[in-house]
From TrEMBL:
Species this chain originates from: Lichenifustis flavocetrariae
Similarity-based family: Belongs to the aldehyde dehydrogenase family.
Domain Aldehyde dehydrogenase as annotated: residue spans: 9-467
GO molecular function, one term: oxidoreductase activity, acting on the aldehyde or oxo group of donors, NAD or NADP as acceptor
UniProt-listed PROSITE patterns: ALDEHYDE_DEHYDR_CYS (PS00070)
Cited Pfam families: Aldedh
UniProt keyword terms in alphabetical order: Oxidoreductase
Protein name: NAD-dependent succinate-semialdehyde dehydrogenase
InterPro entries: Ald_DH/histidinol_DH, Ald_DH_C, Ald_DH_CS_CYS, Ald_DH_N, Aldehyde_DH_dom, Aldehyde_DH_Superfamily
Amino acid sequence: MRLYIDGAWVESADGSTRPVLNPATGDAVGTVAWGTPADVARAAVAAREAFGRWRDVSPYERSKILRAAASLLRAGGAEIARRMTLEQGKPLGEAKAEVGVAADTIDWFAEEGRRTYGRIIPAREPGTQQMVVKVPVGPVAVLTPWNFPLNQAARKIAAALAAGCTVVAKPSEEAPGCVAELVRVFVEAGLPAGVLNLLFGDPAAISGALIAHPAIRKVSFTGSTAVGKSLAALAGQHMKRATMELGGHAPVLVFADADLDAAAKAMAVAKFRNAGQICIAPTRFVVEQSVYTPFMDRFVAEASTLRLGNGLDPATTMGPLANARRLQAMEAMVADAVDQGASVRTGGRRHGNAGYFFEPTVLGEVPLTARAMNEEPFGPLALMRSFENLDEAIGEANRLPYGLAAFAFTRSSDTIARLGARVEAGMLSVNANLLALPEVPFGGVKDSGYGSEGGSEAMEAYMATKLIKVSETVTP
Ligand code: NAD
């Protein structure tokens, strides 16, 4: 995988590369060019120069290019999905679904970019017009992680391009192939040189140089809260706009009046998809005391049906973790919770000695002091506790600094109304699974960040509001 700068696929300025590993085997499956500060500067300058032209391309023409890219992405979907599974580990079916969602997302922003309406505000003086228009903010630094390597990049890039911004993207070096393919389809669809640039390299060095570069006007990052805070501080120092999609630790409130079978099924799918490496994955299960045991039994039964294996094997329903860091984190978090008194209801161990497999794991009666109850596990770990009344459940939901997704299962409209008013989360999902779809807002509050990556809110992030006041005569 090479860099793509100003319309050309290039090696890094000093020619260095790093291996890309298959998490199912630990073997190298390719190499990725390792960019330098000189590459960052070239890409940022190319994005600035291209912005002068791309912002004047009509939204209608931009839309046609985005739609063509979406079609090409779908057409090449099988191979792109295979590459994703080889580099990231998720089952091939999940990788194919991700390609489909990425293509839908590009289509959606292609349309939304044609509706970036302004407004007219009646003036106080006669013969005067006050127009409010939306203008693209400028070149954007897009920094994305490895968990949904294609879709995380696609939704930021599509929104930025549709708004008339140019992009320098730095996706994850651990799963670079599918984003390189994404860039390729945009190029094939007719995107002019310099509008979309692609860098790989040391994340801190590249993001630091990129955010500080005067050509960059906005930063959009998805990743951990710790890294997000440091990048947001850097963006603030340089007065760059920022969207921060950070970590989560989603609570699941299960009330005694819920449909327990359906809730257990829905939450097992949401928990173990992508081996739990999802910022909105359900994590802290808080179950009403009277149904704690029946819900636990149903959930454990669902978890036990999963089949771990190489994502390329059609029988696999859960793949390996994406890297050795996640495996070590799971082992450490389970050991710590058990030391503090949690019980292992299923899983709890590494699976096999090759690759980074970890069993789907359910822990019961997990103390609030356990590390996993406070830090984002970002893996196949479900933690259960019981509650006695609604206030206690809401207190637990809001206990952590995170505020991304929250789930609840109940048939009571009164309970739903109180949860809607009091749960501190950017997304509350009642009796339903939650997916990052192009048409709905996606974002957090508190330490989970700010800004939205879906819905019409997502376009706003790439546009500035400009007032143009015009008078027929000069008024003092
Ligand atoms: P990490 O914090 O080291 O890296 C997370 C992502 O940020 C990676 O893609 C990495 O390349 C990138 N990154 C790291 N330092 C960076 C920097 N200084 N500048 C720019 N990008 C940087 O953690 P990890 O071990 O790779 O992943 C585990 C943690 O990351 C999880 O606990 C989770 O909180 C977070 N994460 C969140 C999401 C999400 O969708 N919100 C996705 C992936 C990882």
